[in-house]
């Protein structure tokens, strides 16, 4: 799938549609047949006036997609009509977006380290908080009671939700923490860092249980598979590492040609979507996303 450089890929909750957000100011939605080889381009979502840096699907609704852009807006799209149904303008260039697991709220982070909580029903900002440190990625736990921030200080801030009061600071890495993923079973959170390590944390005890050490470059993106058995991690290394969560053993490596921007496992099947900083033969950006793991029907 050749596109302008793709920053983000995300599966919908049914595992049948994949969205990609791109530098070309669009998001695109693709219909993926999990047990076949067909990848049909469904539609292009136009309206943003800057790069679409991150996107996420409503965890309860297979056709609602939220996009965050450098144009300061967050938009909600209906994937059946390909239309923007809601939008809100925020105060900065948005680089992070995530849904609360019950679908009621969206959290958005911007380049100025400000967090905004949006009430999805009214599609209005209901809470804003600016942090004094670099905030890189954000996530709720599976119950929505905890909210995590990865920081440039090498820590993970654990906040209570909805008060956003700090409960704990996890000293996770010796360099900035870039990305975070929550295991779908709720047991673990994983953190990828500029020190090239991925740390795995027991959510109930907030203790680090192991680290994954295969990558040699800063970890840009991580994702757990649907049953929490595997974790994928990627960086500027020319492979995506897939490791067993319970043993830490690397079980497979997917070769790639460029630094990776986004990896995401399908919520139902062992399919991994990924997008890279690929260049074509003319050395221009050729953002590509691919899906790994198709089985013969």
Fold and architecture overview:
Pfam families: Beta-prop_THOC3 (PF25174). WD repeats lie at residues 6-33, 45-87, 170-211. The chain is mostly beta strands and 297 residues long. It has one domain: YVTN repeat-like/Quinoprotein amine dehydrogenase (Methylamine Dehydrogenase, Chain H, 7 Propeller). 0% of the residues lie in helices and 54% in strands. It has strands spanning 6-11, 17-22, 27-32, 39-45, 52-57, 64-69, 73-78, 83-89, 94-99, 105-110, 114-119, 124-130, 135-140, 146-151, 155-160, 166-171, 177-182, 188-193, 198-202, 207-212, 221-224, 230-234, 239-244, 250-255, 260-265, 272-276, 288-292. The strands form 7 sheets. A 4-stranded antiparallel beta sheet has the order 1-2-3-4, with no helix packed on it. Strands 5-6-7-8 form a 4-stranded antiparallel beta sheet, with no helix packed on it. A 4-stranded antiparallel beta sheet has the order 9-10-11-12, with no helix packed on it. A hairpin with a 5-residue loop joins strand 9 (94-99) and strand 10. It is globular, with a radius of gyration of 18 Å. The protein starts with 5 loop residues before the first strand and ends in a 5-residue tail after the last strand.
Secondary-structure blueprint:
Layout: E1 6-11, E2 17-22, E3 27-32, E4 39-45, E5 52-57, E6 64-69, E7 73-78, E8 83-89, E9 94-99, E10 105-110, E11 114-119, E12 124-130, E13 135-140, E14 146-151, E15 155-160, E16 166-171, E17 177-182, E18 188-193, E19 198-202, E20 207-212, E21 221-224, E22 230-234, E23 239-244, E24 250-255, E25 260-265, E26 272-276, E27 288-292
Antiparallel strand pairs: 1-2, 2-3, 3-4, 5-6, 6-7, 7-8, 9-10, 10-11, 11-12, 13-14, 14-15, 15-16, 17-18, 18-19, 19-20, 21-22, 22-23, 23-24, 25-26, 26-27
Keywords: Repeat, WD repeat
InterPro entries: Tex1/THOC3, WD40/YVTN_repeat-like_dom_sf, WD40_PAC1, WD40_repeat_CS, WD40_repeat_dom_sf, WD40_rpt
WD repeats: 6-33, 45-87, 170-211
């Amino acid at each position: 799938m050749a596109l302008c450089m793709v920053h983000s890929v995300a599966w919908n909750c049914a595992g049948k549609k994949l969205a990609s957000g791109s530098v070309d100011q669009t998001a695109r939605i693709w219909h993926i047949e999990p047990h076949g080889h067909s990848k049909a381009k469904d539609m292009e979502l136009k309206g943003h006036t800057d790069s679409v840096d991150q996107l996420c699907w409503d965890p309860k609704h297979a056709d609602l997609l939220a996009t965050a852009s450098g144009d300061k807006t967050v938009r909600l799209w209906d994937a059946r009509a390909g239309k923007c149904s809601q939008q809100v303008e925020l105060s900065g260039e948005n680089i992070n977006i995530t849904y609360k697991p019950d679908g009621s709220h969206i959290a958005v982070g911007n380049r100025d380290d400000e967090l905004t909580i949006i009430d999805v029903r009214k599609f209005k900002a209901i809470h804003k908080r600016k942090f004094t440190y670099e905030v890189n990625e954000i996530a709720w736990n599976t119950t929505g009671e905890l909210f995590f921030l990865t920081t440039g200080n090498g820590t993970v801030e654990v906040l209570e939700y909805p008060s956003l009061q700090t409960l704990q600071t996890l000293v996770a890495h010796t360099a900035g923490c870039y990305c975070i993923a929550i295991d779908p079973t709720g047991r673990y959170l994983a953190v990828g860092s500029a020190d090239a390590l991925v740390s795995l944390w027991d959510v109930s005890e907030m203790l680090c249980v192991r680290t994954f050490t295969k990558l040699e470059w800063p970890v840009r993106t991580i994702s757990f598979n649907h049953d929490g058995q595997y974790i994928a991690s990627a960086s500027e290394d020319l492979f995506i590492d897939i490791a067993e969560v319970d043993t830490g053993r690397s079980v497979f490596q997917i070769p790639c040609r460029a630094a990776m921007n986004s990896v995401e496992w399908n919520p139902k099947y062992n399919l991994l979507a990924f997008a890279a900083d690929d260049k074509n033969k003319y050395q221009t950006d050729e953002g590509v996303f691919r899906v790994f793991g198709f089985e013969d029907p």
